[in-house]
Every structure is written in C-alpha cells, then in structure tokens.
Amino acid sequence: MAIIISICSEKGGVGKTTTTVNLAGGLARSGKSVLVLDLDQQKNASYALGYIKDGKLTAAELIYNTVAGIETVHSSAIRHNENGIDYIPASPMLTNITSTIANDTDNDSNYVIKRLLSNEVFEKYDYILIDCRTLLDLLVSNAMNASDYIIIPVESGIYAYNGLDKMLDKVSSINNSTNKRLKVLGILLNKMQRTTVSTSLAQSIREEYESMTFKTQIPYCPAQTEHAVLTKTANVFDEKSTLGKTFLELTKEIIDKTK
C-alpha cells in the first residue's frame, strides 16, 4: 500500500511544488515507485514533470467522476515521466472543484480523494505525493484526509512563521476528527540563505518545533530552479546539482521516517 504524503502550505512562494517534484525525483532515484498528484490549478508540478496537454483525463475529471460515480479507467490519467516519475496533471477545472466535492451527497465529501486513490491501480506505488494549492479549502482537506503524512515547506524569510501555526492547527483538527492517522512528517526549511536573518529564523523554528523539523534544509538555488522552469524539462531533479544532492539527503530522511 502506498504511503501518501501531501505537501501543503497556507503561504505561497515557499517552494511547495519544487519540493514535491524534487522529492519525487529523489524517491525514483532511490528505487521507489512514485506518483505525483497535482491538485493545484496553476499546474506548475505538471509542467515541471513534462506535461503537454493531450486530451486525456486530469485530476479534475477523476474527482468529478468519483463524485458522480462514473466508471473510470484510472490508469488513463497517469502520465509517465522520463525520469521514472508517474503523475496525474492538474487543469484549470480545479479552480471550482470544491463545489463538485461539496455536492457529494451519496458519500462523505471529506473523502473524495481518499476514494479516488483507493482504486487498485494505485496499489503498485510506494509513495504518492500530493501537490496542494495554498487555499486551505475542501480540496486540500480532502488531500489531508487521504494522506498518511504532511510536509510543510517554510521559507527562511522574515515572514517564515506566517501560516505555519495555521497549518499545524489544520493538521491537528483533521487528526482529531476525520483522519486520525494523519501526522506531520516534517517542517522543511526551504530557500535557506547564508544571512543572519535566515540563520536566526531557522534556529528559532528548530527550537520551537524541534521534533517536527527535518534535519535536512534546502539551500536557496534560484539559478538551478529557474533553469528547470525555463527549459520546461522533466529534469528538475539533478542529483549532481547542489539542489539535487540536498533533496537526495531529504529523500533518505523521509524513507527512514516512513519505514
């Protein structure tokens, strides 16, 4: 059975999608079978993984079909990345998908994504990573209810704490109500710079959330990230780059934590 991890942040610009895609690359490079489910209508993870519009099912159609009870060949929505990462792309239809989920009167609307991922086609994966949008809405709650763990990326800027407590409260609320197995896998210090402010904030977060914070922290490497985005290649994960090497360290930490 797949270990399902949602990558969530109430604050934008923290490197959520970069984390999702590079972690998927690290897991694939480590011999794990991995699927990325893109639930952000901006489709950044989909594009980074090489998605080109092809007329096949996307995450939005799968959600709609799950709610409507339409028989679906789930495997037809899975694309295959050249680096060994499988993924289900997002589409603009996700913008208003919460109204579709809320209208699920025959079943509990909290578990649409969970029911979707319970299809036997997903049993072959070791890990399923869900790239969530920043809104803490019904769609993100659905992702959390389907997940075993949450990763919360936090950038090392002056507003590093913004949204962190809100995310932790959300996880706690869901853990106490609709998904008692949900845990915070880790707070990820991301875009770390060699500045006094960055170092001080990282230290403060580690002191306050010591047991929750990953040992690995991701350096600020704008050139490497921009190159992957501008070239629109699937090679976002490059194990020879500084970013790639660090994400490989994070991958090993996550594999150890989820054994």
TrEMBL record:
Domain of life: Bacteria
Record-linked InterPro entries: AAA_dom, DNA_Partitioning_ATPase, P-loop_NTPase
Domain AAA: residue ranges: 4-184
Protein name: CobQ/CobB/MinD/ParA nucleotide binding domain protein
Species for this entry: Ruminococcus albus 8
Classification lineage: Bacteria, Bacillati, Bacillota, Clostridia, Eubacteriales
